[in-house]
Amino acid sequence: IPGPSAPYICAIMEDRKGRLWFGSATGIEVFDPKTKKVKKYGMADGLRNEYISDFLEDSKGRFWVATRDGLHLFDAESERFKFFDEGLRDHTIHTLLEDQSGKIWMSTAKGVSMLVEKEQWIIRNFDQEDGLQSAAFNENAALKSRSGELLFGGPKGFNIIRSENLYQEGKIPQPKLIDFLLFNRSIGVGE
């Protein structure tokens, strides 16, 4: 197997067709073992940045690429990359995971973002106010568990995300009154 020409490899993945994708600080190289050929991709092919931090082939067979300048979706027909940036809190994407319902999750330098496919793509961002261990996350520190939980690691520990437990649009949360204070004194029912 011919090795990638880049001296530093950041990400490696085998796709459904058996091709090996190598991400480096200088772009992407794809080795096809059937043809023994290597195809290179870079900024001329639509990548906004050639530092590749992660790959994800989702359940629909789409191929996602995380870079230091955003998320890219590979179009196999045109062999070009579509850039996703609208709504991302930070464009330095470290890792990519897909949850059980097909949402794409990204750890970034400023929290975790979720990409949802509706009539259009929607991005939702999460940070420390949502319970994350830190705003920052580490490269190559993500895992989807067998039970479907998403784990993202950072400098102060890791977060476990159970995406099915998150608030979903269209569902109205039911408020629950747990205490009532009057002049800093709890008032019971009927008082």
In short:
This protein has no helices and 17 strands. It has about 190 residues and is mostly beta strands.
Provide mean pLDDT, rounded.
88
Q: Uncertain segments of ≥5 residues (pLDDT<50)?
A: none
Q: What is the beta-strand fraction? A: 35-45%
> Distance N terminus to C terminus?
79 Å
Can you give a write-up of this model?
The protein has a four-stranded antiparallel β-sheet with strand order 1-2-3-4, with no helix packed on it. The protein has a four-stranded antiparallel β-sheet with strand order 5-6-7-8, with no helix packed on it. Helix content is 0%, strand content 45%. The model has no long low-confidence stretch (mean pLDDT 88). The protein is elongated and about 80 Å long. With 191 residues, it is mainly β.
Which properties best describe this structure?
191 residues, mainly beta, four-stranded antiparallel beta sheet, 0% helix
What's the arrangement of secondary structure elements?
Layout (H helix, E strand, L loop, with lengths): L8 E6 L5 E5 L2 E6 L4 E5 L10 E6 L5 E5 L2 E6 L4 E5 L8 E6 L5 E5 L2 E7 L3 E6 L15 E3 L5 E5 L2 E5 L19 E2 L2 E2 L5
Antiparallel strand pairs: 1-2, 2-3, 3-4, 5-6, 6-7, 7-8, 9-10, 10-11, 11-12, 13-14, 14-15, 16-17
